[in-house]
Design goal:
The complex is a heterodimer of chains A (273) and B (74).
Chain A (H helix, E strand, L loop, with lengths): L3 H13 L7 H11 L3 H10 L16 H8 L2 E5 L3 H13 L3 E5 L24 H12 L4 E5 L16 E4 L4 H14 L3 E7 L2 E7 L5 H6 L7 H4 L4 H18 L9 E5 L4 E5 L2
Parallel strand pairs in A: 1-2, 1-4, 2-3, 4-5
Antiparallel strand pairs in A: 5-6, 6-7, 7-8
Chain B lengths: L1 E6 L10 E5 L6 H8 L8 E4 L2 E2 L11 E5 L6
Parallel strand pairs in B: 1-5
Antiparallel strand pairs in B: 1-2, 3-4, 3-5
The chains are: A alpha/beta (273), B mainly beta (74).
Chain lengths: 273, 74
């Protein structure tokens, strides 16, 4: 993330300013002075035992090394609706360094009941553009690119360097496309799907063909008649981010971890597939 | 033989959450699906004793089956 020269430069500034605490203001100031990104400065801080203030409450759950790993990680969020909005939000706050957001849709009124990025003001706006704006409001250190494109039409460059993909799609056909694409790239998928009070989350390891197995020739799920109430996407998204961060931090065994939850009866089932 | 049937999400509607049925030897999962009036194509995840299984699976005394419907929204 940093060259030797950049490290020396930052080292001199940190010594000169006697930096013990890395605030947002200080990070911005150093960024202006050196032309280095805020992410690089945060990375340097972590490398030298100084946790940027914005990540202080992450530590204890993440180690400094873990936070540093997240800051250098690149992930993709496919679908920026119910699941994707919350996933993006939590990834930005966690300090996952690079996020590629993909969604071809614009907000409409039926999104308002559950999609974090949807607001009355944002109706008609592309979800990918709103995602970029939201990310910039939360954490300027995170590099977010937004593609207002269908996953099937994404340019090859968009996939470059992605080490984990969040499947936040809302239709089965595209999910199966994504599973195949991720398999070809050798990248694991964090899958999430919701319908009514229910949802499922899990890791799809390359080659497991888990989604093809579950969905088969099916086109629709129970969401078709149960709708998607406000609370289910937030729960599913949080499970997804927890799984994804655990995976990035190397805390997950390479088993097929798949879970089904029921918010009507407050149940949680681990499923071995 | 006794088989425990665990239903999840919408499969519980008008049915039950968990029941133990007395069934003849040689009963297959598909026989239970038929009695429940659940078509195999309605089932996304079918487990016998917590592990992935097929509708043609022949059950043994004490087995439990779990049925989950498809969820695809986002």
């Amino acid at each position: 993330m940093l060259t030797k020269g950049e490290k020396n430069l930052l080292g001199n500034i940190f010594r000169r300013e006697k930096i013990k605490e890395l605030t947002l203001e200080l990070t911005q100031k150093i960024s202006r002075e050196t032309g280095l990104s805020q992410r690089a400065i945060e990375y340097f801080g972590l490398e030298n035992g100084i946790v940027p203030q914005k990540y202080v409450r992450n530590i204890g759950s993440f180690t400094l090394a873990g936070q540093k790993k997240l800051l250098t990680s690149k992930v993709m969020v496919v679908g920026l609706g119910g699941l994707g909005g919350y996933v993006l939000e939590e990834l930005c706050r966690a300090g996952v360094g690079e996020i590629v957001g993909v969604d071809s849709d614009a907000f409409d009124e039926t999104n308002l009941n559950r999609q974090l990025l949807a607001s009355e003001k944002s109706l008609g706006q592309k979800k990918a553009n709103k995602a970029k704006k939201r990310a910039a409001e939360i954490n300027q250190a995170v590099v977010v690119s937004g593609f207002a494109s269908k996953i099937e039409d994404l340019p090859p460059a968009a996939w470059q360097g992605v080490e984990l993909i969040f499947d936040c799609l809302d239709n089965i056909e595209s999910r199966l496309y994504l599973e195949e694409k991720a398999q070809n790239l050798g990248v694991p998928l964090v899958h999430g799907a919701i319908g009514g009070w229910y949802g499922q989350v899990g890791i799809v390891w390359p080659g497991s063909n888990l989604l093809a197995k579950i969905y088969r020739e099916r086109k629709k799920g129970i969401e078709q008649h149960l709708g998607n109430p406000p609370f289910t996407p937030a729960v599913a998204a949080s499970y997804m981010v927890a799984l994804g961060i655990n995976l990035l931090l190397g805390n997950l065994d390479k088993e097929n971890a798949f879970y089904f939850f029921d918010l009507k009866n407050m149940e949680f089932e681990k499923i071995n597939l | 033989m006794q088989i425990e049937i665990r239903l999840f999400a919408t499969f519980r509607e008008g049915r039950f959450k968990k029941e133990i049925w007395e069934l003849p030897e040689g009963t297959k999962v598909i026989d239970i699906l038929n009695r429940l009036e659940i078509k195999p194509e309605e089932v996304a995840i079918l487990l016998v004793n917590g592990l992935d299984a097929e509708p043609e699976r022949i059950l043994k005394d004490g087995d439990y089956i779990s049925l989950f419907p498809p969820v695809g929204g986002g």
